[in-house]
Amino acid sequence: MATIITVSNQKGGVGKTTTSAALAAGIADRGNKVLCIDLDPQGNLGFCLGADMENAHTVLDVLNGTVSIEEAVCHADTCDMLISDITLSNNGMEQVSIEREFILKKAIAPVQEQYDYIIIDTPPALNLLTANAYAVSDFLIIPMVADILSLVGLSQLWETVESVRSLFNSELKVLGILLTRYNRRTLLSRDVDELAAQLADQMGTVVFKSKIRPGVAIAEAPAHGESIFTYNPRSGAVQDYLEFIDEIAETIHLKGGTEHGEENE
Q: Structural domain of residue 55, as residue ranges?
């Protein structure tokens, strides 16, 4: 049975999609079979992973029951994908009256045994799509930009997590908060790190030791159809993501060796 990890924050621009893509590539590099599911109507995850999105079915087709998940899965360089597009923003899932928080869980059930890990990228909102991701997931990762305003929304997100736990998924665990666009030289970043740690403690989780620096390579890699790890492995931000994958590996006992990490030791 696949381990399911959701990357989520209701605030946009915090690095959810980049983190989802990095997780998929990093976990796949360790010899695991990975399925990525894009629940963000912006549909950027498939582009980041180099998926062939021409004439492909979308995750909405699966959620609506138009096609089976087996028909909809397309192949990227590092993993399999359920892609998304703007039609997901008007998904109509709210019209379902019975067990609507379990639509995704039922949709992916036929293939869960075929994968080691499933990575879910969520929209910048706490909506029904997000609730579906939380309801099916084992673990949650919260990326957060290292600024004060990003701290404000954590309490609202935590309320949603607690609600999902009590109603739909008591086993959901928050793996941690990942600070992105982090500048170790500024007092602001260090202050946010300290405050985030206090909030994480109240939430029963941690701030990851790995912090993601700003980096041009992170933005450039998708345009070249490559993962960040193959595009520029020497980039500081890419090295930060490698450390993050190693940290995840220790936490959830991820199998396999880290190919790119070994190359850059």
A: 3-260
